UniProtKB/TrEMBL annotation:
Gene3D superfamilies: FAD/NAD(P)-binding domain. One of its GO terms (cellular component) is endoplasmic reticulum lumen. InterPro entries: Auxin_biosynth/cation_transpt, FAD/NAD-bd_sf. This is FAD/NAD(P)-binding domain-containing protein. It holds the Pfam family Pyr_redox_3. Keywords: Oxidoreductase, Signal. It comes from Ciona intestinalis (Transparent sea squirt). It comes from the Eukaryota. One of its GO terms (biological process) is ERAD pathway. Residues 1-19 form the signal peptide. One of its GO terms (molecular function) is monooxygenase activity. The lineage of its organism: Eukaryota, Metazoa, Chordata, Tunicata, Ascidiacea.
Length: 238
């Protein structure tokens, strides 16, 4: 089961990233400083220490692979320090299924990541059917720490390119160069989805929306979009 999940995650998360790079003129592809024997080379580079990045890191760790996770935040799951903005997850924390089968119960747990440590399950972190987002942040950091995952925090990676020798190369905010054979991007959706409709410049995006309910009192409210963010916002205002 774990090997199948590992293959599925690799299929879903592995991306080949190409593009122009401001360093192209100064870096030679055969530069010995960037060969596979330097400390800045890893066979696998994972960008993002959210649920996806940590899950793939778990499988890489247990397979004994040479990898490093690069996270721009100061800890894992920093996306969830802001989102969802109303601070309640919409992924269910189903603690009781009326079954004793562990695999069946785990399939109904929408928040936990796969691991061999049964203490690392969201059902042991919260009794709420829709847990607070801050609980998920704590869970993700415990997951990274207890499983000894190799995460490098405060590392904002940019200018990813594929070199002529087939390796990927990128730089952090301090202009440190890193190379890897496989690049796994697990950053999620980084930019708002702005609808291409007349007047869209007048809309307030979910990322800037106030959660102060008195501001909505005696107002006519139009919510554009009926995805998770739209339903979450409607529930809060309701």
């Amino acid at each position: 089961m774990l090997s199948n999940l590992f293959s599925l995650l690799l299929f879903c998360l592995c991306l080949s990233v190409y593009g122009n790079n401001k360093h192209d003129g100064s870096i030679k592809h055969d530069d010995p400083m960037l060969n596979t024997e330097t400390p800045n080379y890893k066979e696998y580079c994972v960008i993002g220490a959210g649920p996806g990045g940590l899950q793939i890191a778990y499988f890489l760790e247990n397979a004994g692979r040479d990898y490093r996770v690069f996270e721009k935040g100061y800890k894992a799951g920093t996306f969830y320090l802001k989102y969802p903005i109303h601070r309640k997850l919409i992924s269910i924390n189903k603690r009781n299924t009326d079954r004793s089968n562990k695999e069946f119960n785990f399939r109904h747990d929408w928040n936990s990541l796969v691991s061999h440590d049964e203490s690392l399950q969201m059902t042991k972190y919260s009794n709420d059917f829709f847990p607070p987002a801050d609980v998920l942040v704590q869970y993700l950091n415990d997951y990274a720490t207890k499983l000894n995952l190799k995460v490098q925090y405060n590392s904002t990676m940019h200018d990813i390119l594929k070199r002529k020798d087939g390796l990927f190369q990128m730089w952090d905010q301090h202009n440190n160069a890193y190379t890897c054979k496989y690049m796994i991007v697990a950053t999620g959706i980084a930019k708002p989805n702005i609808p291409a409709i007349p007047g869209s410049e007048l809309l307030v995006g979910y990322e800037d929306l106030s959660i102060d309910l008195p501001k909505f009192r005696n107002q006519s409210i139009l919510i554009v979009g009926r995805g998770n963010a739209g339903h979450e916002t409607a529930q809060h205002i309701y």
